[in-house]
Amino acid sequence: MEENTTNTETLKYCLYARKSSEADERQALSIDSQISEMLKLAKNEDMEIVETLKESKSAKSSGQRTVYNQLLTGIREQRFNAILTWAPDRLSRNAGDLGSIVDLMDQKMLVQIRTHGQTFTDNPNEKFLLMILCSQAKLENDNRAKNVKRGLRRKCKMGTRPGCVPLGYELIRGKTFRDPSTIEVDPIRGPLIQKMFLWVSEDGLSGRQVWEYMKEEGFKTKNGKIVTLSMIFRILADPFYYGSFEYPKGSGEWYEGSHETLIDKETYDIVRSKMKVSPKGKWGRKDFFFNKIFKCGSCCSGISGQEKVNRHGKRYIYYGCNRFGGKNTCKEKYVREETIIESLANICVTAQEENSRLELKLRTEVERFNDMQKMMSGENAKPITTKDYVQYVLKNGNGSEKSKIIKELSEKLVLQGGEIAIEEVMT
Q: In 10 A of CB 276, how many CB atoms?
């Protein structure tokens, strides 16, 4: 009896309060409420509290709580030898952290754990009860996680994707809590998203062109914000619109949705094939965009393009002097379009060092392009350089996109010596 009294008088408590924002602990008292209740107990029983620790962190995973680790350190450093907390599950909801507490008891460093209604000391029966209570909390966690996952899988098998519905659809809540929610087509945004897929699959529009058209249509998000270019690419890459979805994302588990589709699978596949572009891919046939952009560096005549087909059926575009300037004897040779584009890309890379506006524009566009490539092809997509981007736009972009880059170059450009060069000004 005297021994217990002596131990009680020498106990130094650390008050530990924890609250997690996760659903499994929503019923637990708030941190302030825990501290308030435990301070009342400490006052009534004349406990000496030498330190107070509190944190907002889940206790599901072992060793992940910074403040809890400070609690263990304080015991090892003998700043205190007892813990005051609201309930055992405030200390641990996993086997690893529970083992750390029990080990400290076995080493006689932790003399007592006091909760609102129980006391645990280095007694076999009390330690066993502590382990049962904390293990029960872990069991509840594990079962709850399994039940949640089971419920989500069941929801997926019924054709409903968990989470927010994509743009173009609306979530219609049931009239009562027993009535299931349904996903219906948004009468305003749904038809516009349907148009987006058709613009790409049937009219061959690029993602940027679709974005510009959607802005003209006044297309906005559910929050009333203007849709971004990256959002356009996300929409065009989402299989939900033809009736399938993957959950969880990246798991490889696919389900058929019960919602009304906006497009068919064939349209989606066509869009995906047209949106998979690469700056270093095969060049397609284009109009002679550079016809009126440059002049001949030798005779100042105009530049004309023409298409050639070799004996293997491969098509090439060449540009050369049209000799309309009165000098029919001009010796400038025809140059392939790829060579002109490479020359322009080199000039842009050099010019951006002295042209801050051009440098900012190119850097922004390259970063945006790389973000879209990651979105379409995954994190392993190889990033492009400024030169790659300029070459890609000048070959695959529309007239407006090409012109924006050319206009940023203040120098006069000429075709001379088999490449594009800056016109030399005579002084």
A: 12
